[in-house]
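ingest -> validate -> predict -> emit
validate: passed (alphabet ok, no gaps, 232 aa)
predict: started
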Amino acid sequence: MFKKLLYILPFILLGSPTLNATRLEEYLIDTPTAKVAPIRTFSATSRIFSDGGLVSFFTFTPFDRFSLGTAITLEHIVGTNEEDIKILPPSLQLKFQIYDGSETWPILALGFNNQGFYYNHDEDKYLQKAKGLFLAATQEIYVEGLIANYGLNITTDGFEFEKLHSFIALNYDLTNYLDLMLEWDNIRSLKTSRVNTGLRVYIAEFFALDFAVRNLNNKAERILQIKYNYTF
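emit:
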């Protein structure tokens, strides 16, 4: 257990935020928003999922409207199981905000994300394909604090493009400290789509915890996400 703790610490404990904290989020649970964090913003999200797995996303905004990053998955690292720890190849995360939006039109962004979930070692592929190439839109609808995020994506297995899907998500600012999230993801057919829901709890402007359930309409999976955002 101590050995596993040594592995996990660098991916979760990333030091104290410095200078200006930002609350801007580029992703909800599995779906992207069309927003890009301010320039020189570093973001880190660590997701603990089933079977003792951990995936950590690291993103930086080197230029205005453009962010890039990577994600690293570690299997069998959380808990007391005796399985060998496995580190999977890193993935690529890119997003470019192409339109700032208006009172009528949403914010628009193009992005790429080839981080899949549930890696099958026998077949050497992810059972849940990555978001891949996506076009995302974000806008406030109906009432203050209710944000719609929706778009189209072409799933990928690594860098091989596969099928066209869509997604739609809502997040609502319940209070200054709580956000409710609801997603309908991977939409191509009712059988393959996934319904996710969760609650984002802001401990501080730069630090939040996500308590979420993925795939409610099939085999539900509970996850915990730890999120840091700060601007240098």
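The longest strand covers residues 160-173.
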